[in-house]
Amino acid sequence: MYRIRRFGVMKTATVVAIMYMVIVGVFVVPFALLALLVAPTQSSGFSGAGGILIFALIAIFGYGLLGWVFTAVAAAIYNLSARWVGGIEVEIETVAPPPPLPAWSTTMGPPPTTQNAPPTSSAPPPTTPAPPSASPPTG
C-alpha cells in the first residue's frame, strides 16, 4: 500500500485549472460557433459576434479561475486532514508490458501451418512413374 501524504497546493490547483479550461473550451467553442451562425438573425443583449466571443472567453477563463481557487482550497483541506487521519491509501500493482507485435515481412507467403492441420494443396497428388518397358523405343 502507498499513502498520499500531501498534495502541492499551487501545482495541483494549476494543473486542475488548466484541465478545466481545456474541458470547458471543448464545449464552449462549438456552441460559440453555432451561436455565431445564428447571431445575425437573433437579437440579444450582447453586440452580436463580439459579445459571443467575449462570453466564450469569460466562460473558459472563469472556469479556470474558479477551478484553481476551489482546487487549492480542496488540496489544503486534504493536506490538513491527511495529517490527522493518515491520508488516502492506494494499492499499486505492477503490470508487465504486453508482448511485442510480430514483425511484418515484405514477402507474401502462405500462412504457417500447424502440425495437426492436413496439407491444403490444390495440386494433384504425386503419381509413381511407370515401370520401364523391355523393348527399346523406336524412332
- Summarize the biggest pleated sheet: 2 strands, antiparallel
Number of strands: 2
Compressed to H and E, one letter per element, the order equals: EHHE
Q: Whole-Å distance between the termini?
A: 95 Å
Strand order of the largest sheet: 1-2
Low-confidence stretches: none
Count the helices. How many?
2
Structural class: mainly alpha
Helix content: 40-55%
Task: State Rg.
Answer: 37 Å
Taken from the alpha-carbon principal axes, the silhouette is elongated
Would you tell me the overall average pLDDT? Answer: 81
Percent range for β-strand residues = under 5%
Structural summary, described in words:
- The structure is a single chain.
- A two-stranded antiparallel sheet has the order 1-2.
- The chain is mostly helical and 139 residues long.
- Helices cover 48% and strands 4% of the residues.
- The chain has a domain at 2-90.
- The mean pLDDT is 81.
